[in-house]
Amino acid sequence: MAARARKMADMPVVQVYTPEYWQDACRHLVRKDRVMKRLIPQFGDACLETRGDAFITLARSIIGQQISVKAAQTVWDRFALLPSELTPASVLKLKVDDMRAAGLSARKVEYLVDLALHFESGALHVRDWHAMEDEAIIAELVAIRGIGRWTAEMFLIFHLMRPNVLPLDDIGLINGVSQNYFSGDPVSRSDLREVAAAWAPFASVATWYIWRSLDPLPVGY
């Protein structure tokens, strides 16, 4: 226990960044959308945050697949203690048994290894992402095992902080739009697009507030 405490104390403090466009987006959404006008004031100054590390963001996305926010954080905390520093190279050196003991499924271990290999091999154009279109980045990311369009969209929102991403397959967005706009009735993709028409060009921000309406714990990767 003491050794673990020392290791946690030695871990570097991760810088957190927030998007410059957030206040402008909130003003736009409050003017354009009745639900956003109600939701946004409920959460004060809280906003989207990124840790500024592409590999860590994608790794957290993989770990968080198909489990709750709380469970994902528990597994992540255990996993993050395994290497001395969370980098692609250090993850490739981890033992599978240790990763499984942290709570990762065999499939997620495979996904994390493939993610690390893509970073280490230079297959990803990390330095060019800031200048690339959303769809081009998605196409590059979905070539990694375990990363589908949803995970790539979460990366666009939480790492690159792209302002106008609409994750149509996100369960939280679907449920939140159903509850906030359709009195709990099922919603289709066309319904989502119709609602989100008023959000542009800040669909990512509106999506973040829809998530918060369901769970006061901020979503983060």
From TrEMBL:
Keyword field: DNA damage, DNA repair
UniProt protein name: DNA-3-methyladenine glycosylase II
This protein's record includes keyword DNA repair: yes
Listed EC numbers: 3.2.2.21
Example GO BP: DNA alkylation repair
Protein family per UniProt: Belongs to the alkylbase DNA glycosidase AlkA family.
InterPro entries per the UniProt record, alphabetical: Alkylbase_DNA_Glycosylase/TA (IPR051912), DNA_glycosylase (IPR011257), HhH-GPD_domain (IPR003265)
Enzyme class (EC, first level): hydrolase
Gene Ontology CC, one term: cytoplasm
HhH-GPD domain span: 63-215
Pfam families noted in UniProt: HhH-GPD
Catalysed reactions, semicolon-separated: Hydrolysis of alkylated DNA, releasing 3-methyladenine, 3-methylguanine, 7-methylguanine and 7-methyladenine
Species this chain originates from: Pseudorhodoferax soli
GO molecular function: alkylated DNA binding; DNA-3-methyladenine glycosylase activity; DNA-7-methylguanine glycosylase activity
